[in-house]
């Protein structure tokens, strides 16, 4: 199979993610050699990656991904996505955009998945004191 087919299937996996997914579903794309990295963590292996998603569903209200674009070269895929979530059922839904760089093995398993998104804007600015400091710094830089 080609990187394009792997990437399209992987994008579908992300859009269908569910708190009910089992190790079997995660095992379709990840194995003990898969590596996952985002602004907060860097892990390796099926169990560690599965834990990231289980944790996401425990901490956020109805999180989901919408994949807007899939672009492939011979060995690399880039997925542009929107992450939609609420901190809890009473709060407003929030959305932010990110990009994932993904490489696949010849069997279609993820070798590397690296997420790129602005943690300062989407997380740190929402922490009361830290957010005020970050917004002040941004204003100074844009002045």
From TrEMBL:
Domain of life of the source: Bacteria
InterPro entries: NTF2-like_dom_sf, SnoaL-like
Pfam families according to UniProt: SnoaL_2 (PF12680)
Residues annotated as domain SnoaL-like: 29-110
Gene3D superfamilies, per database record: 3.10.450.50
Name of this chain's protein: SnoaL-like domain-containing protein
Organism: uncultured Sulfurovum sp
């Amino acid at each position: 199979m080609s990187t394009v087919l792997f990437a399209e299937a992987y994008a579908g996996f992300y859009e269908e993610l569910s708190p009910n997914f089992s190790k079997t579903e995660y095992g379709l794309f990840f194995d003990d050699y898969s590596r996952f990295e985002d602004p907060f963590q860097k892990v390796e292996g099926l169990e560690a990656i599965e834990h990231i998603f289980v944790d996401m569903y425990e901490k956020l209200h109805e999180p989901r991904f919408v994949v807007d674009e899939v672009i492939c070269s011979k060995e690399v895929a880039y997925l542009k996505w929107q992450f939609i979530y609420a901190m809890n059922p009473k709060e407003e839904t929030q959305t932010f955009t990110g990009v994932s760089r993904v490489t696949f093995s010849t069997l279609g398993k993820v070798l590397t998945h690296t997420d790129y998104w602005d943690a300062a804007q989407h997380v740190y600015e929402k922490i009361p004191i830290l957010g005020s400091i970050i917004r002040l710094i941004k204003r100074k830089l844009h002045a």
